[in-house]
Amino acid sequence: MSIRRTLFWKVAPALVILQLVSVAITAGFIILYAQGAQETLASTALAARVDATAEEIERRTNGLALGADSLDASLRLDLSYRFPDPLILVNLDGSAAEPVWPAPDGFPSESQFEDSTWTEPSFIQLEEAYDDVVIDLSDDDVPGGFASAPLYDAAGFPVGLLVVQPLTRSLDLELSESRTAFRQSVQNGAVLAIAIALLFGALLTWWLVRPVRRMASVVSEMGGDWQATRVDVEGEDEVAQLGQAINDMAERVAESIRTLKDTDRVRRELVANVGHDLRTPLAGIRLHIEEAIRFDQESRPEEARSALGTAQRQVDFVARLIEDLFELSRLEGDRSLLRLEPVPPAELVSELVGMYQSAATSAGVTLETELAHGLPIIHADGTRLIRLMGNLVSNAIRHSSHGDRVVIGVGSNEGALRMTVTDMGSGMDAEQQERLFDRYYRGDDARTRSSSNKRTGLGLAIAKAVAEAHGGGLEVESVKGEGTIMTLSLPLDDQ
């Protein structure tokens, strides 16, 4: 997989760009506010310089006793090195002397102003202009702004103004060093911010992507071992929820794999056991038919009819076996096959007693009933319940000894109808109980094992399937040598 297609290279650039945008916005606000602060500081510095220049003019001209045109050549030369903008002396009557132009060798990068036109600021006509130094950086009165400072004579009376206009180059000169320092600071800060953004973005992305990568690695390993491999879940955030979801999915997949393996095992056992169950009766059928043919050829009709009768019984057994297997496969978990109808439990038990009383009497077993009062009528498939309970009763009679009792009990508790068949027979151990309802279990004492060719050995498996199709269950409690209790539970709420 290409590196640029990984999640890291998709998330990291986005985080870095987001941080750089944040840095750029922050830097913009800093520059905006810094610019205002720089202009304030520059105004203060220009005011001090203009005031100092005015004091120098007053000192060297004896207070401009002869007016604004009284500047000698030496003073004009010195003043040309004070500002990169023209200096103009204005008398009280508003007349202006020849401007003092910046010296070319003092400000070589600046253009000259010989062709400039003097624009008188309206402010100098106000009395407030002679109160203090004024700095105006706006273009409202004079393009480029101006600075003015009052000039006084030796007696301290105002005699004129020192005006610097425009202030464009003077302001740039004042701000040049701070702008250079600020620009260098911004550049250094930007480089540092970019480096921090890259490092922080990489670390943050690695921190976010690391658990996802670990999950991807675990999921890849799950393909080889769904049973053991799981994601380590830490915390309760979205990543932890994703890990838990992966673990839940793995559990379901593992359970599906186990189910598939069990199904495959059952299928193999089905083929093996059905083949075994059918092989013997089919071989017997073939043998008896061959005997019948031989007896017929030997003119022994009685023996031929007897052999055909035996073959007929074997055919009936095979038919019942196939029918039981087919019904079992249809019943398991398929409730739609049931024909539900109102079934009074007392009548069902009465019918069972009528069906098996003769068999119990022949075996010397007493068949008894124990019915609770007020039994509810249930909605169930009565025919299949008769077959289920009949299988339990016949098994109990068959495994009981002469003089034993078999009790059919019916009661209800915890929202379920419970029908029990209790015998005093040989009982079963724990292993036999665990595998009792396995349709292919062939333990020596298992109640699914056929004792004659009239039984297929699938009765309890079919009984359990009928119980589960009704939404209930079939359970066994047994003690070796003391007897067995088979309990059918049917939910009353779902009836």
Protein topology:
Elements: H1 7-60, H2 73-79, E1 87-91, E2 134-136, E3 146-152, E4 158-164, H3 168-222, H4 238-297, H5 301-331, E5 341-343, H6 345-362, E6 366-371, E7 378-380, H7 382-398, E8 405-413, E9 416-423, H8 430-434, H9 459-469, E10 473-479, E11 483-491
Parallel strand pairs: 6-8
Antiparallel strand pairs: 1-4, 2-3, 3-4, 5-7, 8-9, 9-11, 10-11
Describe the structure.
By secondary structure, the protein is of the alpha+beta class. It folds into three domains: 3-175; 238-331, Helix Hairpins (Orthogonal Bundle); 339-491, 2-Layer Sandwich (Heat Shock Protein 90). The protein has helices at residues 7-60, 73-79, 168-222, 238-297, 301-331, 345-362, 382-398, 430-434, 459-469, and strands at 87-91, 134-136, 146-152, 158-164, 341-343, 366-371, 378-380, 405-413, 416-423, 473-479, 483-491. Strands 6-8-9-11-10 form a five-stranded mixed beta sheet, covered by helices on one side. A hairpin with a 3-residue loop joins β10 and β11 (483-491). α7 (382-398) runs antiparallel to α9.
